[in-house]
Amino acid sequence: MAQIHINGEWKTAEVAKQTPLLYVLRHQLDCKSVRFGCGSGHCGACTVGLNGQAVQSCETPLGAADLQTVETVDYLMSNEIGSVVHQSFIDVQAAQCGYCVNGILVSLVLLFRQNLSPDRDQIIRVLDRHLCRCGTHTRILKAVDLAKQRLADLKLHVQGGLNGTP
After folding, report:
1. 3-state DSSP assignment of residue 71
2. What would the pLDDT profile of 48-70 be if each residue is shown by its tens digit?
3. I need a surface site. Which of 45, 105, 118, 120 has the fewest CB within 10 A?
């Protein structure tokens, strides 16, 4: 049994602590936005935030999330940074099939939370953990650049800066 602070609420998962977090999120806690991709931590489709860090939930055991904070794409899109990143992906049409996008969005929102002006190398390092089989990498990078610009513009207009948490 484990207690997880998931998307702002405490939930209990009653399975073995070595069970992959992905299975608990999808099957016990009904978080369908967390997707199964490869099952071995190589594609990034199952990425979630664990205490503010992007992790592949297919290779993260439930025990690692016990008494910790887990955030899915649904929750992360409900804050200022998330909504800007999400809208930038829509405006640039960065997703083709969309299967990889939830994990990519999680990683990018968590990156922008830490640094509103990441350099290209930081962005590439974060995206390197994600596989887009449709090949929309160029559009994804355009969406990231657009989000970065919009966040910079928004920061100039919001007194006190951005609030990175919902």
Report:
1. strand
2. 999 999 999 999 999 999 999 99
3. 120
